[in-house]
Every structure is written in C-alpha cells, then in structure tokens.
Write a sequence for this structure.
C-alpha cells in the first residue's frame, strides 16, 4: 500500500509539472510494476501490454474518423454547414444562436472533437452573431457549449477511446449517443430562447429568404447524406465502426474533390493533423493499459470490487460518487486524460453494480462533456476565448445557465437509462 501511495504522489507531481498524461501514466505504471515484480518481469509485462493495446484493430477507426473530419474542415464544408443553418432560423430572436447549436450537431457528426468544433464555431459563427449585435457573453458561451456536442454525438473520439479502454462495442456506443446528443442540443436551444426573450442579448437576425436558404443548403446535402450513410451502416450492421470510418473518409474525399474546395497543400495538412492526433490518442491508450496492469498487480481493483460487493451503500450513491469524482476531475483535466485515469477503477466498479456498459459509457461521456465547460480549466472556454478575444470571465458567466441544462440532461440519463439504451436495444434485435 505504501508503494501505491508513493506512485500516486509521483503521478500527481508529474501532472502538476505539466508532463503529458500519457507519459505520466506510463512512467508511474512502469515504476510501479518494477517495484511490484522486479525490473526484468516489469519490462516483459510492459512490452506485451504496449503491443497488445496499440495493435487493437478497433483503433483503426480513430485515424479514419479524424481524417474524415480534417478533410471536411479543410474543404470548407463545415463553414458552409454553419451558414446553411443560420439561413433557415437566423431570423428568429436568438435564431443565430440556435442555428449555431444546430450547426454544432452537424459538426459533431463530422469532427468528433469538441475543441476542433469549438474552434470552427468561434471562427465562423461568433463573428456573425457579433455582427447582429449579440452580446459577447452569449455568443462566446454558445460556441463553447455547442462544441461539447462532439463528445457525445457519433462519431465521437471520446466514445471510441472509452470503447477501447473498456472493450465495449463502439458501434453500440455510437448509436446510444444519438438521443442524448439531440436531447442536449434541444436543451441548449431552450436556454437560448429563454435568454433571448428575457434579456436583450439576442436580437433578431436578417429577414428570412427562402431562395437564399435553399441555395445555402445545396452544398450541405452531400455532407448530411454522408453522415446518414456512416451512422446507418453501423446501425444496420452493414459495417463495423472501422469500416464505416473508411467509408466516411472516402465519401468526404469525394465531396471536397467534387466541390473543388481542397488543394494538395490542404490535403497534406489534413493527413499530418490526423497522424499527430492519432499518435497522441494511441499513446494515451497504451500508457493507460500499463497503469491498469499495475493496478491489477497491486490488487487495488480487486479490493475495490470486494468493497462494492459487501458495502451497504445503495447502488445510486456509489454511481453518484463516481460521477462527482469525474466532475471534479473535469475541472482540471481534459476528457481523454480523465478516461485513461478513471476507467481502470470506475468501470469495474460500475460492472460490479450490474450497470450496462453502454449506458455507463454515455453517462461518463456526458459527465466529461460537462467538465469541458467548468472552471478553472474549462478547455472549450479557453479555446473560445483564444479565438474570439472575449475575456474568460465573461465566457464562464455566459456558460452558467447552459451548465444548469447540461446537469438536468445528465440527471435524466441517470434516472432513465432507456433514453440511452432505446436505439442500441433496437439495433441488437
């Protein structure tokens, strides 16, 4: 136990020193294994663990989904989606902000990364809202919370990583994320309309012109069809997530080439970005596996499961403690770091309580999503502040009412698992 405490302290020190979470977990996990087994056996475990975790076939989906997003972003398709949504509902009071949320759903289904979605929204939607006299507080908050939809709406990279770490079906996780994602988007829309009708932060936009809206939507139709094809292939059992991701890359390449919106330089940059992001994620997965192996050898996980099996605490209380811990972690860490640190202990605990792994994955993902908005870290708020030049304090003030809605949605998912499991249950029949 003393060794375990020392390892945890070392992990905390490395993280405080801003060592990347993957390397911090890899270093501490290796040292822990060496202390537990000896240096030679620890290297043997390290070698096997790193190979097994990084060579998993399902990891193929990660670079493919990232590349699909990079191609569509480089090909200007994401910006056109924002413009199309604004042309349909931007004339209502608060309509531009609602359109931004709608565009965020489309972006989430393409990008899979919350920070990338927030950056795209900050560059495209925020200037438009500012031009129509929206308050900076509301406009910056909307692009921040809209970006978090990419964490839940498939093909979410966070869901892929959760599936790899816990060996849960990624296809079912993707399908399970659809209703919670749309429910969150509707909740954000309700908050926007409430703010628009009770304050002067969100005036009406330009008058609605049907021909203009149709024209703006013309370029988005192929993107929507691609989303339906990718998700439909997984839902119908026609393709695995990796195969659907390959379909998405091919479809996105055809779209940007047909619309002549991508150059060789942009294509090269997209591939490079996808490679860098993939290496980072695979390294996190592999180093998390090393740390998980150390926890297994210390029997900490076994002791925790024994405690869960013998405790008189209600199941709901234990799940609540896990959620609270994840929310606190979200104040200081990004979503992949939280998953890699928490799942080795939290997932076995939830399974010991007979939780559905798909439901638990969506709940965890939703909790991590909230962490992207909470101070002091609030990664999405920082991205929006850097892009829009709005003070961070102003953005966090604007986010507060949306945080309330996010927590309401989380409570609904906890109280009614059928919201999450309805589509996966249909899928498995």
């Amino acid at each position: 136990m003393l060794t375990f405490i020392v390892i945890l302290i070392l992990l905390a020190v490395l993280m405080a020193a801003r060592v990347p979470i993957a390397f911090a977990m890899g270093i501490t996990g290796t040292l822990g294994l060496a202390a537990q087994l000896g240096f030679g056996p620890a290297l043997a475990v390290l070698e096997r663990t790193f190979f097994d975790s990084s060579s998993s076939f399902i990891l193929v989906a990660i670079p493919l989904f990232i590349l699909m997003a990079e191609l569509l972003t480089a090909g200007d398709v994401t910006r056109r989606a924002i413009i199309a949504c604004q042309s349909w509902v931007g004339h209502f009071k608060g309509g531009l902000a609602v359109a931004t949320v709608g565009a965020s759903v489309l972006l989430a289904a393409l990008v899979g990364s919350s920070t990338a979605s927030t950056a795209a929204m900050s560059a495209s939607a925020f200037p438009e809202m500012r031009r129509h006299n929206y308050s900076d507080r509301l406009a910056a908050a909307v692009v921040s919370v809209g970006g978090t939809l990419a964490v839940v709406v498939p093909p979410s990279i966070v869901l892929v990583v959760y599936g790899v770490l816990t060996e849960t079906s990624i296809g079912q996780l993707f399908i399970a994320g659809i209703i919670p994602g749309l429910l969150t988007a509707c909740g954000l829309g309700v908050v926007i309309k409430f703010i628009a009708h009770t304050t002067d932060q969100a005036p009406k936009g330009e008058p609605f012109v049907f021909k203009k809206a149709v024209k703006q939507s013309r370029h988005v139709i192929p993107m929507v069809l691609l989303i339906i094809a990718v998700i439909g292939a997984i839902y119908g059992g026609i393709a695995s997530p990796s195969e659907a991701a390959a379909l998405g890359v091919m479809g996105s390449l055809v779209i940007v080439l047909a619309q002549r919106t991508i150059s060789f330089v942009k294509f090269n940059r997209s591939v490079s970005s996808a490679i860098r992001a993939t290496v980072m994620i695979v390294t996190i997965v592999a180093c998390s596996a090393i740390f998980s192996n150390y926890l297994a050898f210390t029997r900490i996980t076994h002791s925790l499961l024994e405690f869960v099996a013998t405790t008189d605490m209600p199941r709901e209380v234990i799940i609540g403690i896990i959620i609270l811990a994840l929310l606190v972690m979200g104040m200081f860490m990004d979503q992949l770091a939280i998953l890699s640190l928490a799942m080795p202990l939290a997932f076995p605990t939830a399974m010991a309580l007979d939780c559905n792994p798909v439901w638990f994955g969506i709940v965890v993902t939703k909790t991590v999503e909230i962490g992207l908005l909470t101070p002091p870290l609030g990664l999405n708020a920082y991205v929006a502040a850097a892009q829009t030049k709005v003070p961070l304090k102003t953005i966090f003030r604007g986010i507060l009412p949306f945080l309330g809605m996010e927590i309401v949605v989380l409570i609904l998912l906890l109280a009614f698992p059928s919201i999450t499991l309805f589509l996966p249950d249909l899928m498995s029949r």
Observations:
- Residues 21-30+42-428 form one domain.
